[in-house]
């Protein structure tokens, strides 16, 4: 698989009320053509800020990219002007947000909203764009698209609205689709339908997907690779199997323990005790150390380097140092366990 996007040492900071919030602190990952990479982690870990940076959507002020590169098809996007971003956004890289109602313009017919990108990026005539909008609505499973293209967002149900948002995002056949909690606002049956739809579309178009979520069930259904974020850093990354069946970072263990299991006799979830770090004053050591049951003195003092566990898996944890005591992962982790 060829590399499509490379994010190198990305650092994003927000300056608010005299504080410097270091939301993303040196994130590095790559995205290959046609794959789905999930970025998981608790609220505030930096997932959304990372994905917004890839779309040139960090509000400035108060935000700025302090360092790093976002290399898309060989070109670094960090120095892009707003004009450069406008050429790219919605065409090469598209985004689906959590709440379809805020992503759509309530005063504009959905057909027109789909047509905008086609006219701007693909220089279609109005009637060509309208035909394509109808095709797209059909493609995302909206019945009677010839009629619905003339309707406004409030005339659609929540699930149908999210389908419209997906149609807009896919209109120009983007190479990268960023889906930020795309199903969180929807009920469970609709969630499954939308995820199926995204998978089908990916099969047809070969679009690479970055899926941002805190729901590991969604990850298991969708992703081939996973990056686990905590405190503005990627603490572990690997293939889906590596992260689910051979995780090495205690934070990943915590996330897996807090995931509902399919055949569980009890539905009690083990939330990770404690709170995430204050990113306006980030710790010098491992950000998870204050909540980690296995933390040693060195964890508080010094950020661990990545240990490469396989060609595809790495974790930033002092437990992987050869001098560290051997620790077994808790029995509560794993999909479909007791
Ligand atoms: N516009 C902004 N101004 C100031 N701080 C911000 C802004 N956007 C994000 N942050 C801060 O950046 C940090 C990371 O936030 P981010 O939204 O990326 O987390 P997340 O992992 O996506 O969480 P969630 O799942 O809740 O969306 C947080 O501390 C947040 O308060």
Automatic annotation (TrEMBL):
It comes from Sporolactobacillus spathodeae. Keywords: ATP-binding, Cell membrane, Membrane, Nucleotide-binding, Transport. CDD domains: ABC_NikE_OppD_transporters. It is found in: Cell membrane. Pfam families: ABC_tran, oligo_HPY. This is Oligopeptide transport system ATP-binding protein. GO terms for molecular function: ATP binding. It is a peripheral membrane protein. SMART domains: AAA. The keyword Cell inner membrane does not apply. The lineage of its organism: Bacteria, Bacillati, Bacillota, Bacilli, Bacillales. Belongs to the ABC transporter superfamily. Residues 5-256 form the ABC transporter domain. InterPro entries: AAA+_ATPase, ABC_Ni/Peptide_Import, ABC_transporter-like_ATP-bd, ABC_transporter-like_CS, Oligopep_ABC_C, P-loop_NTPase.
């Amino acid at each position: 698989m060829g590399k499509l996007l490379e994010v190198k040492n990305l650092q994003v900071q927000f300056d608010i009320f005299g504080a410097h919030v270091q939301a993303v602190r040196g994130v590095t990952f790559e995205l290959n053509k046609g794959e789905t990479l999930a970025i998981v982690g608790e609220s505030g870990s930096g997932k959304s800020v990372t994905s917004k940076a890839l779309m040139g959507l960090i509000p400035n002020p108060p935000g700025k990219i302090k360092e790093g590169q976002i290399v898309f098809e060989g070109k670094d996007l960090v120095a892009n002007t707003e004009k450069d971003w406008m050429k790219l956004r919605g065409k090469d890289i598209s985004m689906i947000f959590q709440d379809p109602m805020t992503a759509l313009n309530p005063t504009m017919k959905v057909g027109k909203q789909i047509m905008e990108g086609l006219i701007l990026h693909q220089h279609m005539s109005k009637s060509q764009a309208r035909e394509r909008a109808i095709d797209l609505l059909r493609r995302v499973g909206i019945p009677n698209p010839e009629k619905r293209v003339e309707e406004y967002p409030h005339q659609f149900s929540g699930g149908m609205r999210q389908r419209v948002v997906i149609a807009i995002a896919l209109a120009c056949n983007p190479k990268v689709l960023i889906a930020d909690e795309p199903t969180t606002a929807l009920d469970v049956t609709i969630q499954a339908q939308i995820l199926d739809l995204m998978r089908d579309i990916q099969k047809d178009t070969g679009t690479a997907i970055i899926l941002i979520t805190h729901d590991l069930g969604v990850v298991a259904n969708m992703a081939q690779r996973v990056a686990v974020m905590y405190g503005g850093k990627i603490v572990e990354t690997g293939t889906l199997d590596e992260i689910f069946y051979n995780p090495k970072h205690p934070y990943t263990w915590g996330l897996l323990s807090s995931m509902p299991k399919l055949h569980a006799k009890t539905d009690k979830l083990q939330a990770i005790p404690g709170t995430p770090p204050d990113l306006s004053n980030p710790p010098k050591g491992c950000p998870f150390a204050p909540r980690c049951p296995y933390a040693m003195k060195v964890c508080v003092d010094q950020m661990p380097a990545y240990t490469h566990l396989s060609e595809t898996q790495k974790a930033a944890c002092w437990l992987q140092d050869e001098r560290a005591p051997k620790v077994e992962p808790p029995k509560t982790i794993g999909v479909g366990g007791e």
